[in-house]
Amino acid sequence: ILHDRTLTTENRRKLIQVGNLGENQISFHDMSEYDFSDFEKTVRFYTIGSLFRTLIPEVMEELDKVLYLDADIYVNSDIKELWKINVEDHYLAAVADEGISNGTMLSVAVTSGEALAERYFNSGVLLMNLRMIRRKGCMYQKIFEYIRRVPETNLPDQDALNVVYGDKVLLLDKRWNYFALTAHRRGEKALINGIYHYAGCYCELYSLAEYDLQYYETLCRT
Questions:
Q1: What is the mean pLDDT of residues 90-102?
Q2: Sequence-separated (6 or more) residues with CB below 8 Å from residue 15
Q3: Which of 116, 138, 171, 212 lies 20 to 30 Å (CA to CA) from residue 20?
Q4: CA-CA distance, 40 to 89, in Å (whole number)?
């Protein structure tokens, strides 16, 4: 769990309890020692927490590979299937961002020509090859350099990740980061085998869609 001082003692206890239910071990990584104050205006409503993932190669120096997952997702799959994907020759593996590729969302990195719309990936699910990332240099320094250079970016860390690592990214099947917003707009009810990302939308129980019902059932258990 990547966090700062806003994680309360009670919520830490609850997270540990949830982990114990599945016989998992949870590690907490406090990002408070890092100064993000320069970027508070740039990240706007995305919050400073969206930048924590850029420190993974530094904070978890003993690891060579990490599967990063945003907090607003529902996993309906054996995560090992995603974990076993070979990323030896790539900085990371991710899913193309449907909103960018179909033009319903804009990216400063794309409009400026620094990233390709058809290869622009969403940063909510990242299978990271930390060994290769470290060889390129310090990730968070490179990300922050981009944000300082392009303060008008509307997708701060995501734009930066695409510009810095976009030349060697393995694009995954969309089911590994499927927007619940897309499923809602299409009126889908059935549950797919993969990962639902609740970016820009809510769990809609009135939809009676299986993924929303499962999301809520999981919320109640945890």
A1: 93
A2: 1, 26, 28
A3: 212
A4: 34
Q: How far is residue 97's CA from residue 82's CA, in Å, rounded to a whole number? A: 18
User: Biggest alpha carbon distance in the chain?
Assistant: 49
Single pTM value for the model: 0.92
Per residue in 100-117, is it b (16+ CB within 10 Å) or e — as a string? Answer: bbeeeeebbbbeeebbeb
Is the separation of the CB atoms in 199 and 72 below 8 Å?
yes
SS3 category, 16: helix
Residue 15: predicted pLDDT: 92
Residue identified by tokens 């540990």 is 16
Mind listing the pLDDT tens digit for each residue in 113-122?
999 999 999 9
Tokens 């406090």, located at residue: 30
Sign of CA dihedral 69, 73, 79, 85: negative
Give the SS3 label for residue 27: coil
Edge-to-edge strand list for the sheet holding 92-96: 65-69, 121-129, 92-96, 169-172
End-to-end CA distance of the chain: 15
- Could you tell me if 160 and 142 are in contact, meaning their C-beta atoms sit under 8 angstroms apart? yes
Average the pLDDT over 18-39 and give the result. Answer: 83
Q: How many helical (H) and strand (E) elements, i.e. helices and strands, does the chain have?
A: 11, 9
**What is the distance between the alpha carbons of residues 212 and 200, in angstroms, rounded to a whole number?**
14
Identity of the amino acid at 118 = E
| Secondary structure (3-state) at 152 | coil
